[in-house]
Specification:
Helix content is about 35%, strand content about 25%. By secondary structure, the chain is α/β, with parallel strands linked by helices.
């Protein structure tokens, strides 16, 4: 997608404070930046966040201070830290639900689609998640129909199964942004 087509779009990328999956954040971010999309990174705080593979990011804002009205999409990276820092974050659930209800793109990769399920946006939707029984159960508990696929797009929701899908995930989010 040409950068000029998406230069006015803004994405809020959410990462866990620790143990976010590096490639699930950096690969999509690079795809978004190459398309000219403005990126804001949020986490539990603005303290430096550290990925599973050791890469570091200083979030721009805390999740608590994110205003969904300022963004066209909310994209949540995965990794083991998602379970600890993001799955039960009520402010993040509200942010995701608000974005979804305002027909913005809502996306999550790896184990982070559980956040979407807990936010109530996967009801009666096809979705994927990292192939782990606890994650699959969380999706189904949230009303989703689990699909064993790398990337699943249903309406304005994009879910992906893990690091090997990071590039395809980023491209799917861009495609959805282009339809807004």
């Amino acid at each position: 997608m040409k950068g000029s087509d998406l230069a006015d779009k803004k994405i809020l990328m959410i990462i866990a404070q620790n143990n976010f999956r590096d490639e699930e954040f950096f690969e999509p971010r690079e795809i978004f930046e190459d398309a000219g999309v403005d990126i804001t990174v949020a986490s539990n705080s603005t303290d430096e966040a550290v990925g599973t593979l050791g890469r570091k990011v200083r979030p721009d804002i805390s999740i608590d201070n994110a205003n969904v009205a300022e963004f066209d999409a909310v994209v949540i990276a995965g990794g083991g830290g998602s379970r600890e820092y993001l799955w039960s974050n009520k402010k993040l659930h509200k942010l995701v639900k608000d974005a979804y209800e305002h027909e913005k793109v809502v996306a999550a990769i790896c184990i982070s689609p559980v956040v979407l399920a807990r936010a109530g946006v996967l009801e009666d939707r096809r979705a994927t998640v990292f192939k782990d029984s606890a994650c699959i159960k969380e999706l189904e508990k949230g009303g989703a129909s689990y699909e064993d696929e790398d990337v699943v797009v249903t309406d304005n929701v994009v879910t992906a199964a893990g690091p090997k899908a990071a590039e395809e995930f980023g491209e799917a989010v861009l495609e959805m942004l282009g339809k807004l």
